[in-house]
Structure formats: structure tokens, C-alpha cells
Automatic annotation (TrEMBL):
<dbReference type="GO" id="GO:0032259">
    <property type="term" value="P:methylation"/>
</dbReference>
<feature type="active site" description="Proton acceptor">
    <location>
        <position position="304"/>
    </location>
</feature>
<comment type="subunit">
    <text>Monomer.</text>
</comment>
<feature type="binding site">
    <location>
        <position position="187"/>
    </location>
    <ligand>
        <name>S-adenosyl-L-methionine</name>
    </ligand>
</feature>
<dbReference type="InterPro" id="IPR002877">
    <property type="entry name" value="RNA_MeTrfase_FtsJ_dom"/>
</dbReference>
<feature type="binding site">
    <location>
        <position position="259"/>
    </location>
    <ligand>
        <name>S-adenosyl-L-methionine</name>
    </ligand>
</feature>
<keyword id="KW-0808">Transferase</keyword>
<dbReference type="Pfam" id="PF01728">
    <property type="entry name" value="FtsJ"/>
</dbReference>
<protein>
    <recommendedName>
        <fullName>Ribosomal RNA large subunit methyltransferase M</fullName>
        <ecNumber>2.1.1.186</ecNumber>
    </recommendedName>
</protein>
<feature type="domain" description="Ribosomal RNA methyltransferase FtsJ">
    <location>
        <begin position="185"/>
        <end position="277"/>
    </location>
</feature>
<dbReference type="Pfam" id="PF18125">
    <property type="entry name" value="RlmM_FDX"/>
</dbReference>
<dbReference type="GO" id="GO:0006364">
    <property type="term" value="P:rRNA processing"/>
</dbReference>
<feature type="binding site">
    <location>
        <position position="239"/>
    </location>
    <ligand>
        <name>S-adenosyl-L-methionine</name>
    </ligand>
</feature>
<feature type="binding site">
    <location>
        <begin position="220"/>
        <end position="223"/>
    </location>
    <ligand>
        <name>S-adenosyl-L-methionine</name>
    </ligand>
</feature>
<keyword id="KW-0963">Cytoplasm</keyword>
<dbReference type="GO" id="GO:0005737">
    <property type="term" value="C:cytoplasm"/>
</dbReference>
<dbReference type="InterPro" id="IPR048646">
    <property type="entry name" value="RlmM_THUMP-like"/>
</dbReference>
Length: 353
């Protein structure tokens, strides 16, 4: 059955937030439609006949709760397990383009995880069939659209297309990061993922240079400070609690026993990072003051969300931060894979180096 609109993955349990975000931002883009979402499914469908409008005017990087953005083209139900390939090839006849790669996957949810084996084995069968039909490049070609086959049950799947410039390059939009033995805490993965996902490759090279200066607010036990030292930044770690000794032994860290929420630097810094547990509006206001006062040029910080109306709070906090910073900023926000009840924000002065 042909379908039109968006398919977006999210963290399990955050489907209502993603549905609300898609509904609001699609309306602002002038695309009328409706969201189909069920809690704990790990994905949201935004059904819309004006899919081209969404493709052009709703960039994936502007979405907070979506791990990736896919253009939905078909939903197939009641597929015969003995032949799943034929109905897929038939559904693709309405979309004659050639694909540069194939992802066969399932939502990141408890209910869908048992489909991992099916997705893996079916991908091995579908790939040569698509190549024989002339629909799939002989070798991965990142310049071409990517085909996604998304199993939600053994006889129920979605077909979707990813624009390589407007979607995550990763299966399910999930970066596979390994927690190294010397990481002071698992929170280090949040900052590592933020640097990989929220900064473009050229930004990582340009904005994270050895010798740059940074502040880590609420640093203990030192997970985010440790990540910054691995980038060879000089870090002022602000927290009344202790840091792990091996972080201090890098020679790149000055530990100040102070309240990170009220401390301010004597001189402007390149970076400020913050993962303090505090009300999100209060954090947004304090982060805005760092830019308004000229204390930093770039920042990554987390906003801990309430249990209810999380999209409303997200929108309010981001608007509050943008308004009170009084600076021309590039701002990107995302609920990262390693986040939980929070979102991560990257902000940088436009044109800063």
C-alpha cells in the first residue's frame, strides 16, 4: 500500500513528544497532515500528502526528538513470510530511482528487538534481488538515496527513503560508541555523541583545536572534562565534588571547588560544557548569560526534561535561550541515544572560529 509522509525514529517512550514536534513543525512548513504514534513503539509516522514540502522545508537537523528522518513511500501488511521480496519490488515500481545503499532494520524498542535476526537475514536476501532488478548500486554510493526496509512485525513493514544529506548515516540513527575503561563515568558518552552528531565534520576540526580553553560546569566525577582533555583542550572543571585522579593527572585540568551554576570565568573561554541537574528553564537562562556576557564562543549543555509536556518545555527553553543570549547563534538540539530524560544543545556564535 502506497504511503506518503515521514517516518522518524525516536527513543522508546518519547513518541508523543516527537509526534507533537512533527505536527507543529510540519504546520509551520505549510504541510497539512497528522501523526500516528503509539507509546513505546520507537517511531512516529507523520502522514502527509505534501511529502516534497516536508522533504524541502523540514530539515532533519531541525528536529529535536528524531534520530533520523525518512520519507515514507509504502506500508506493507500481511506479507507472506515465504516471499517478502516480491511485494517490496512491486511497491518500488512507483519509485523508479536507484538506491546507493540498503538498510533493513527495526525500531529500537523492546517489542521490535526480537526482529533483529529477521532484519539481518532478510537484508542478505533482498540486497542481491535489488541489484538484479537494477535498483541498488553494486557498491555503496553515498551520493544516491538510501532505501530503508523497516520491520515492525514479521508480516508488517515500512518502505522509506533517506536523503543522505538530510538523514543520519547510521542504522537507526544510533552511533555505536564504546565506553573506555578509563572514562570516569558513563556520562562521557553523552558528550562524545554530541560532538559527533551535533557538530559537522568541518566544525569538529575547526572548533576543537588543541590548546583551546574550556569550562566544565558541574564537572564531578570528570566524565565531560575527560572527553575534552582527549581533544587536548585546557579545562577549568568547576564542582565542589572530587574529580578522578587520572583526569587531573593529564596536566590539562584545573579543578575549582565552586558552584558551577554561579561561577564565571575571569577571561573569555573558547568552550563551556554543562551537564548539571537543575530545572531546564534555569539552565537555559544561565547558559544564555554565558553568551550574552561573552564568556564563551561555543557550548554544549543538557536540559533535564520534566515527566510531562516535554515538547512544550523543550520549545520554551530553546526559545528562552535564544532570546536571552542576545547573540546571533547557530543552535542545534537533539535527544541523543545516550541521553535519557534530557536533550543536548550545541550552540556557537555564528561565524566564530
Amino acid at each position: 500500500m502506497n504511503a506518503s509522509g515521514l517516518l522518524a525514529y525516536c527513543r522508546q517512550g518519547f513518541e508523543p513528544e516527537l509526534a507533537a514536534e512533527l505536527t507543529e513543525k510540519a504546520a509551520l512548513a505549510g504541510a497539512a497532515g497528522y501523526a500516528r504514534a503509539q507509546r513505546n513503539d520507537g517511531y512516529v509516522i507523520y502522514a502527509c500528502e505534501e511529502a516534497d514540502n516536508l522533504r524541502r522545508n523540514l530539515p532533519w537537523q531541525d528536529l529535536v526528538f528524531a534520530r533520523t528522518k525518512l520519507m515514507l513511500i509504502a506500508e506493507l501488511r500481511g506479507i507472506d513470510p515465504k516471499d517478502r521480496i516480491t511485494p517490496i519490488l512491486q511497491a518500488l515500481e512507483a519509485h523508479p530511482q536507484r538506491f546507493g545503499d540498503l538498510f533493513v532494520e527495526h525500531p529500537d524498542s523492546d517489542a521490535a528487538k526480537p526482529l533483529a535476526g529477521l532484519a539481518r537475514s532478510f537484508g542478505n536476501a533482498l540486497r542481491p534481488a535489488l541489484r538484479k532488478a537494477g535498483r541498488l548500486s553494486a557498491s555503496d554510493d553515498a551520493r544516491l538515496p538510501r532505501l530503508h526496509v523497516v520491520f515492525v512485525q514479521g508480516d508488517h513493514l515500512f518502505l522509506a527513503i533517506a536523503d543522505p544529506h538530510d538523514a543520519s548515516p547510521l542504522p537507526l540513527g544510533i552511533p555505536r560508541l564504546k565506553l573506555l575503561p578509563d572514562a570516569p563515568s558513563r556520562s562521557a558518552l553523552k558528550l562524545e555523541e554530541a560532538i559527533r552528531v551535533l557538530l559537522e565534520p568541518e566544525e569538529r576540526e575547526r572548533l576543537l583545536k588543541p590548546g583551546m580553553t574550556a569550562a566544565d560546569l558541574g564537572a564531578a566525577p570528570g566524565g565531560w572534562t575527560w572527553v575534552l582533555t582527549r581533544e587536548h583542550l585546557r579545562v577549568t572543571s568547576v564542582d565542589n565534588g572530587p574529580l578522578r585522579q587520572h583526569v587531573l593527572d593529564t596536566g590539562l585540568v584545573e579543578h575549582l571547588r565552586a558552584d558551577g551554576f554561579h561561577w564565571k570565568p575571569a577571561q573569555p573561554l573558547d568552550w563551556m560544557v554543562c551537564d548539571m541537574v537543575e530545572q531546564p528553564r534555569r539552565v537555559a537562562e544561565r547558559m544564555a548569560s554565558w553568551f550574552r556576557e561573552g564568556w564563551c564562543r561555543h557550548a554544549i549543555f543538557n536540559l533535564k526534561l520534566p515527566m510531562k509536556k516535554r515538547w512544550d518545555e523543550t520549545r520554551l527553553c530553546l526559545d528562552l535561550f535564544a532570546e536571552q543570549s542576545q547573540r546571533d547563534l547557530i543552535v542545534r538540539a537533539r535527544q541523543l541515544y545516550h541521553d535519557r530524560e534530557e536533550i543536548t544543545v550545541f550552540a556557537t556564535l555564528r561565524g566564530a572560529r
